Amino acid sequence: MDSVDPAGLPKQASRPSFSYHHTVSFKDTNVVGNVYYTNHLEWQGRCREHFLRSHAPGILDDLSKDLRIVTLRCSCDYFAELHAFDDVEVVMSLDARDGHRISLSFEYLLEGRQIAQGHQQLGFMRMTPSGALEPTDPPPEMIDALSRFSHQAGPAQGGQNAC
Hints:
Blueprint: E1 17-23, H1 38-55, H2 58-63, E2 67-78, E3 87-98, E4 101-110, E5 113-127, E6 133-135, H3 140-147, E7 160-162
Parallel strand pairs: 1-7
Antiparallel strand pairs: 1-3, 2-5, 3-4, 4-5, 5-6
């Protein structure tokens, strides 16, 4: 964490990112009234899906054929609670690409304060005729789209896009 705000919560980092906005519903909460922890992981998935729709729509056709995007690892660290009707911004950035694998980071923001952070490692695979999965490089459209949201991208390549 680079720095903290007066409440002791991590401040939002400025870097090229893609944002997904979510309003917490009662469905997202548990009997105590706060957001059930697994929902943060679900929102990571929604953020990825909206990213694909907005920046790499050609991948959707490949996914209906033999391309698979497999979640290899995911995590989330929680700094503060969320409740019904909170407006959350889930901010996704590319951390790294290594062959067929990519690593993504997620920041969860409430009124500009980071309330959680998450990470995912994804693998790109192709389904063989025998039904086995084999590693494959991400399609060029995906590489191009993700490169605009890399931590290493400069201001001319990056920027913040929202959904």
